[in-house]
Design goal:
- The complex is a heterodimer of chains A (657) and B (114).
- Helices cover 40% and strands 14% of the residues of chain A.
- With 657 residues, chain A is an alpha/beta fold.
- Chain A folds into four domains: 60 residues, no CATH class; 169 residues, Thiamin diphosphate (ThDP)-binding fold, Pyr/PP domains (Rossmann fold), CATH 3.40.50; 178 residues, Rossmann fold (3-Layer(aba) Sandwich), CATH 3.40.50; 161 residues, Thiamin diphosphate (ThDP)-binding fold, Pyr/PP domains (Rossmann fold, 3-Layer(aba) Sandwich).
- Chain B is mainly alpha-helical.
- In chain B, 48% of the residues lie in helices and 0% in strands.
- The termini of chain B are far apart.
- Classes of the chains: A alpha/beta (657), B mainly alpha (114).
- At the A-B interface, helix 15, helix 16 and helix 21 of A face helix 3 of B.
Chain lengths: 657, 114
């Protein structure tokens, strides 16, 4: 009994993980070198709850001198087999010790292919790259995060993906066995339940305790992530499970379950027929789409429905839902005269049919007003109704609707189109044809007024956002272009002026409005577009870039061609307006503190030389460009660089919006 | 509430018609005040407007309109009291807006018409 007890005390340090032999050697050396006074700490002493001392830090950070061989196939090699079974193409990741075994297996056993490691400098960048990649390709990526610290870095980007209904796979490395995990840093970076960090905004998570459990959970996680409504999923992966050799489970080795996609949920047939009846009999039906077109087929279906009804379509831009070149494409105000509104995967139905004015009336809360008639019928098809969680408030204010389907819009459109066809009488067809003619006239008039607005301040310096956007388009319109991100508000000019038709012409926004999405999501989408042979361009705002500019290095490192044209308005402009507004409400002169915007909102004095920042990380870059006449030649030059396979950045000083 | 607002607006319009005259400030001074008071935030440095605020120039509306609207706005634009934006500053800003030349006709801008 005494012998056994001694073993128990010593084994966790000397035994279980053979690598620790070398750590101990290192620790002993470090103890001699760093603790010159007094005897070295006994190597088999259990670690305390105190912060790690120098010896412990050295044990974690110094390279092991020799590593004993692990017999048999490592568990992490089997994990690579599982990952490969799902055809995951890339692995944007910031390296870390808690998944070192899986890392090594991926690049050596897995030959760094399917998935290929993309070297990221921040977990938030890695997740946002996966976010952008999915929207350009329709394929989810995997990212690895380091226990507590890496997952906390990643969490904002995970929230964006959650709000934007984007699937991605997260594996968080975690040293779970408190009795045997390395002391010091690995222990500080471990937790009982790391998935708890992101549980409120992931669809599902698990903590496998065996390799068989891992393979089932990984395939299950993928299946859940890829079932609409899409969303991120997380697996907490024990470092011990990664490092240990494979053991047979019962009488056979662990197997890899086959992935069969789940059919997306469709609307109830009775509700679909009622929706069709309302739409066919409406005088002025309007369709509003936010994240309706999950795939290119979704755009075609929406065009079919809209043309069948000659109904105007408001594309709220969560995805590219409807071609801007179709005369049924309309602005948000057309809901005002609608008698039936069909909302497809709307983030916020309330704000679609109501207005909020931030005017300090109503005890500072602002005023609410309806934008539609009291008799207007509302129809909703929204898969998010199946997946709402309680804590984070991305479900928005409650809106009563007349026909509500908890279903995937794209999957429901074929049956809705058929139901509309069946419900159409000859009388209604005649009315619908007449409606289409009127809509076409309004579309052309609106196009002209948009151009007139774009021409105002055309020659201004700093450069107007309309000119910025159109100078870019003039240089890429002959290419198979993809606007991978448009962060920072440029008055929505790309959507108003560019002939967006294909699903990759517009990839939407962050979802959760978490600033810092634009730069990494652009690089991720550009990675997908590189394979597809598309030309990637982003409108890159200044504040967004500075959250994690290290992604510029990642793009250069992996030769990801991307034209980033900066909307450098030298401030967090939304907050410029917010603070000014509050100062006015309180009858105070706002404190500018020597800057252009209120204290804390400007990014100037000194001005950031973004072009130099990009150059330092391997990009071709130019700037600052303030004269609009210099813009076209600079963009032309940058386009050639990108076509040659490199990233290029133009630092352009712009108007605020 | 609306009646009260309209009443104040009418008084202010009448009042402003009487007292507003021109100032002898330069457009540069006007632009400096335009920026200092945060007008650029929603309307752009040239008053061109955008998604956050309407166009102010070229061809600004009569100053009486601005005086009433700036002081008593209850819409998206926050009101500017006399303390925050004195009348004399408003006049100088207005003159800056008047001084901004018209840009090119959109029909002459090739890249807007392709």
């Amino acid at each position: 009994m005494t012998d056994k007890k001694n073993q128990d005390e010593i084994e966790p340090v000397l035994g279980r993980r053979s690598f620790l032999t070398s750590v101990i050697t290192t620790s002993a050396i470090a103890a001699v070198t760093t603790q010159s006074a007094g005897a070295a700490e006994p190597i088999n002493k259990l670690s305390s709850a105190l912060p790690p001392n120098g010896q412990r830090v050295n044990a974690e950070t110094l390279p092991p001198s020799e590593i004993a061989r692990v017999p048999g196939k490592p568990g992490s090699d089997f994990m690579v087999d599982v990952i490969k079974s799902l055809g995951i193409e890339y692995l944007p990741t910031n390296c870390a010790s808690s998944f070192r075994a899986l890392h090594e297996s991926l690049i050596d056993y897995g030959k760094n292919k399917m998935p290929e490691y993309i070297n990221c400098m921040h977990e938030e960048s890695a997740v946002a790259m996966a976010h952008g990649y999915f929207k350009a390709s329709g394929k989810p990526l995997l990212t690895l995060c380091h226990g507590t610290v890496g997952l906390q870095h990643a969490s904002m980007a995970v929230y964006n993906a959650w709000c934007d209904r984007v699937p991605l796979m997260i594996i968080g490395g975690n040293d779970m066995d408190a009795a045997s995990r390395p002391p010091g840093v690995p222990t500080v970076h471990s937790a009982q339940d790391i998935n708890g960090i992101v549980r409120d905004y992931t669809k599902w998570d698990d903590t496998p305790v065996s390799l068989q459990h891992f393979s089932q959970s990984f395939v299950r996680a993928y299946k859940i992530a890829m079932t609409p409504p899409y969303g991120p999923v997380a697996i907490s992966l024990d470092a011990g499970l990664q490092q240990e050799p494979m053991k047979e489970q019962g009488d056979k080795a662990p197997y890899i379950p086959r992935y069969i996609p789940t059919s997306p949920p469709q609307g109830d047939s009775g509700a679909v027929q009622e929706a069709a009846r309302l739409l066919v009999n409406a005088q002025n039906p309007v369709i509003v789409a936010d994240r309706a077109a999950r795939t290119p087929a979704g755009i075609d279906l929406l065009v079919q429905l809209a043309e069948l009804l000659q109904a105007k379509v408001i594309d709220q831009g969560g995805r590219m839902n409807f071609p801007k070149t179709n005369y049924l494409s309309a602005g948000p105000t057309v809901v005002n005269n609608a008698d039936v509104i069909l909302g497809l995967e709307l983030t916020d139905f309330w704000a679609t049919v109501n207005a909020f004015t931030d005017n300090a009336i109503n005890h500072g809360h602002g005023t609410n007003s309806t934008r539609v008639q009291s008799t207007t019928k509302l129809i909703s098809i929204n898969s998010v109704d199946l997946n709402t969680k309680a804590n984070y408030q991305d479900f928005q204010r409650f809106q009563v609707v007349d026909v509500s389907m908890a279903a995937d819009a794209q999957a429901t459109l074929p049956s809705l189109i058929e139901a509309v066809r069946v419900a159409l009488t000859n009388d209604r067809k005649a009315v619908i044809v007449q409606r289409g003619a009127e809509t076409k006239k309004a579309y052309l008039a609106n196009k002209n007024s948009t151009r007139i607005a774009a021409a105002v301040a055309w020659n201004a310096s700093p450069i107007s956002t309309a000119r910025l956007v159109m100078e870019v388009f003039a240089q890429i319109k002959h290419l198979d272009w993809s606007l991978v991100a448009s962060e920072g508000n440029v008055s929505n000019w790309p959507n108003r002026l560019w002939p967006m038709e294909k699903h990759y012409h517009w990839l939407g926004r962050s979802g959760g409005y978490g600033v810092g999405y634009g730069a990494p999501a652009s690089v991720g989408a550009a990675l997908a577009n590189r394979t597809a042979g598309r030309f990637s361009v982003s409108i890159q705002s200044d504040g967004d870039l500075m959250y994690a500019p290290g992604v510029l290095w990642t793009a250069a490192k992996h030769k990801i061609p991307l034209l980033a044209v900066m909307h450098n308005n030298r401030g967090y402009h939304q907050e410029v307006m917010h603070v000014q507004r509050l100062a006015n409400f309180r009858n105070r002169v706002v404190n500018l503190g020597g800057d252009t915007g209120p204290v804390g909102t400007s990014i100037e004095n000194p001005d950031i030389q973004y072009h130099l920042l990009a150059q330092s990380m391997g990009w071709w870059a130019k700037g600052p460009i303030k004269d609009p006449a210099q813009l076209a030649p600079a963009i032309k030059e940058a386009v050639q660089v990108v076509l040659a396979g490199q990233p290029a950045l133009l630092n352009v000083w712009t108007q605020p919006r | 509430m609306i009646k009260k607002y309209l009443g104040r607006l009418t008084i202010s319009l009448v009042f402003s018609s009487v007292i507003f005259t021109t100032c002898k400030a330069s457009p540069e001074q006007g632009k400096a005040l335009y920026i200092q008071h945060g007008c650029w935030g929603c309307h752009g440095y040239e008053g061109q407007g955008g998604i956050a605020g309407p166009k102010l120039s070229p061809d600004p509306k009569p100053i009486d309109f601005y005086h009433g609207f700036v002081r008593y706005s209850s819409g998206a634009m926050p009101p500017y009291s006399e303390k925050i934006l004195p009348k004399k500053d408003l006049i100088v800003i207005y003159e800056f807006l008047q001084s901004i030349p018209k840009g090119p006709d959109y029909k002459t801008i090739q890249i807007l018409n392709n």
